[in-house]
Specification:
It is a single chain. This protein has 442 residues and is an alpha+beta fold. It has twelve helices and 16 strands. It has one domain: Chorismate synthase, AroC fold. Helices cover 34% and strands 17% of the residues. The strands form five sheets. Strands 1-2-3-5-4 form a five-stranded antiparallel β-sheet, sandwiched between helices. The termini are far apart.
Length: 442
């Protein structure tokens, strides 16, 4: 299958499927001597996994990652202290599927002749034929986004070392909008929200905090633990502390379900989405991504412009639009309104606005990079829809009997955040190389 590879300097290749044995991601370009653990990767994966709240699919995949290659299995010389550190070779993360029981496979088998409107099931059948991985939609399922989150977390870790922060949050859901929030406050809110989710995630506490999987264990030892976890999914989930909205707001200052830095708006979003879902339908919205600390000059002209690379986030399932800065609103502006004027202040360039979203001519300006993504409603809905039998072309009707999300917005923001990190790191590595060579002629 083509199309499953990303990047030039920071390269990522993904594979697997929703109901295959699992998914995998191979990352090239990570620096050596970087400490990385499965626990910290899972800290991001738990933000997008299903079954976490009332808005997401009830599928109970824990999304527990296993680092398979790319780190030292032991100190390279006695007492070197580099055990568990990256060694510069491709790093592989495996994400086994642990909640793929026959009852759910049978649901797909019973409906796979009739493609789901709005989903890839018809187009993928036309491309790959009867052998198309249609159980759970294969690599066209939202589950593949766990690979992006894993690779993107690693990218964020490198970027943070370089003074760059990437974060994202829900800007709009079910036509309820979050107002403008200062980017520094939004970053702090998002950090608090992530901490809350780790504290309340039963698998994070049971598997990592309690040490059932550690970096000292060999691959087969970890897989033996996952084989046991597969039998304990419900038992472990039952250990999760009950989410009390008031207590969470008081302790963490966040909403208990949505990562939206306006708690009042977040609650209105949840209510609006639940109302839509109760009628068998689904809701869409907008995710906002912000990148802070980017030096001016990232990006390349013409085909590899930084905003064009960010536009590749249309490759995330359910994303139907990507806008940078003011985006489509520029059509209603004059040039004087759209232009980000600048002045010098204490020896530094200061912009009066950021309608360009931190990018002009495909190159970063040094301002915050601001991107918004339009997320369509979940295509799998509990309403009767017109479709066809893909083998006979007879007209049919279909209503979902498989597990589904009330909205994808609540789970897609970490995917957008981490995809953005991949784009920024890929460009940053090229930027550093160019700047190093440029200095030779200064």
């Amino acid at each position: 299958m083509l199309g499953c590879h990303f990047g030039r300097m920071f390269q990522v290749t993904g594979g697997g499927g929703s109901y295959q044995d699992g998914l995998s991601i191979i990352v090239q370009g990570l620096p050596p001597a970087m400490a990385v653990t499965e626990q910290e990767i899972y800290g991001d994966l738990l933000l997008r996994k299903p079954g976490s709240d009332e808005l997401s699919s009830p599928r109970k995949e824990p999304d527990l990652p296993i680092i398979y290659t790319g780190v030292n299995a032991a100190d390279t010389v006695e007492n070197a202290g580099n055990k568990g550190l990256t060694n510069g070779t491709p790093l592989t993360v495996l994400i086994p599927n642990l909640d793929r029981h026959f009852i759910h496979i049978k649901q797909y088998q019973d409906t796979n002749r009739t493609p789901r409107p709005g989903h890839a099931s018809y187009a993928s059948f036309m491309k790959y034929g009867p052998a198309d991985d249609a159980i759970g939609a294969g690599l066209f399922s939202g589950r593949y986004s766990s690979t992006i989150v894993s690779a993107g977390y690693l990218a964020k870790k490198v970027l943070k070392k370089c003074g760059i922060e990437v974060f994202s949050y829900v800007k709009e859901l079910a036509s309820v909008r979050c107002g403008d929030v200062d980017s520094s406050k939004a970053l702090k809110y998002t950090e608090n929200y992530k901490q809350m989710r780790r504290d309340y995630d039963a698998f994070y506490q049971e598997i990592y905090v309690k040490g059932r999987i550690t970096g000292e264990m060999r691959f087969l030892e970890k897989m033996a633990v996952l084989a046991q976890v597969e039998k304990e999914i419900d038992k472990i989930r039952d250990k999760a502390p009950k989410m009390d909205a008031a207590k969470i707001k008081d302790k963490y200052g966040v909403h208990h379900i949505l990562n939206c830095p306006d708690i009042k708006a977040a609650e209105e979003m949840v209510q609006a989405c639940n109302k839509i879902s109760a009628g068998g339908d689904s809701a869409g919205g907008v995710v906002k991504v912000i990148v802070k600390g980017v030096p001016a000059g990232l990006g390349e002209p013409i085909f590899d412009k930084l905003d064009a690379e960010l536009g590749k986030m249309l490759g995330i399932g359910a994303i139907k639009g990507v806008e940078v800065g003011a985006g489509f609103a520029v059509k209603d502006m004059t040039g004087s309104q759209s232009n980000d004027q600048m002045h010098s202040e204490n020896g530094k360039v200061v912009f009066d606005s950021n309608n360009a979203g931190g990018i002009t001519g495909g190159l970063s300006t040094g301002q915050d990079i601001v991107v918004r993504l339009a997320v369509k409603p979940t295509p799998t809905i509990d309403k009767e829809q017109h479709t066809i039998d893909k083998y006979t072309l007879e007209n049919k009707t279909l209503a979902a009997i498989t597990r589904r999300d009330a909205t994808i917005v609540a789970r897609v923001w970490p995917v957008a955040e981490n995809y953005t990190a991949m784009v920024i790191l890929d460009s940053l590595m090229a930027y550093y190389g160019y700047e190093t060579v440029k200095q030779k002629f200064a």
